[in-house]
Amino acid sequence: MAVEHQFRQEELAAQAAEVLEELAVTAKLGPGKLVVIGASTSEVAGQRIGTAGAQQVAAELYAGLERVRARYGFDLAFQCCEHLNRALVVERSVLERLNLTEVSAVPVRKAGGSMAAEAYIRFREPCLAESLEAHAGIDIGETLIGMHLRRVAVPLRPARRYIGMARVNAAMTRPKLIGGERAVYALPQQEGSQPCD
User: Fold this and answer.
1) What are the counts of helices (DSSP H) followed by strands (DSSP E) for the chain?
2) Pairwise CA distance, residues 5 & 165, whole Å
């Protein structure tokens, strides 16, 4: 069944924006932060991943995500499908700022996926990064974005559990807690704490 028969296309933009807004607030995302997006437009349309990619679905998702990104000022990276080894579409400024390894390909619907292809068209100066470590991410349709998240990933179950017909999960990350039982993870309220030997 085509996605147009299940809900209006513009609903997808609103649903994507809702999920990203919740993630942005919960993870305190802002300028300098990077959010990875994995999305199967096939799953959004109620089909099996990789079987029915739809550029119009990707365009609606992108519109909703971009609205939130522009408001908070973080950067987005869009994961390609397995045919491009899960490389990521990023702005060249992000690639250079983070010293990421560039790889050469142009994502299209059948090799890269509709969502990555849409981002490549919409970005000002798109390029592909081989991998990255994002501060947070959204997985639309169980595309598996974990390989592109910083350690330590903290699952976030958004209030909206579906975009279209695709299940949605999200994650934020936190620094590793180090030092064991004697470690302190926030400054004490009073002075006089014991020095380390």
Assistant:
1) 5, 9
2) 12
Q: How many domains does the chain have?
A: 1
Q: How is residue 59 annotated by DSSP?
A: H
Query: Residues 164, 166, 169, CA angle at the centre, nearest 5°?
Result: 120
Residue 1 pLDDT more than 60? Answer: no
For the stretch 49-108, pLDDT in tens is 878 888 999 999 999 999 999 999 999 999 999 999 999 999 999 999 999 999 999 999
- What is the SS3 assignment for 68? helix
CATH code of 154's domain: 3.40.50.10360
User: Is 133 a member of any domain?
Assistant: yes
Domain assignment present for 37:
yes
Distance CA 145, CA 192 (A): 44
Range of the domain at 115: 9-175
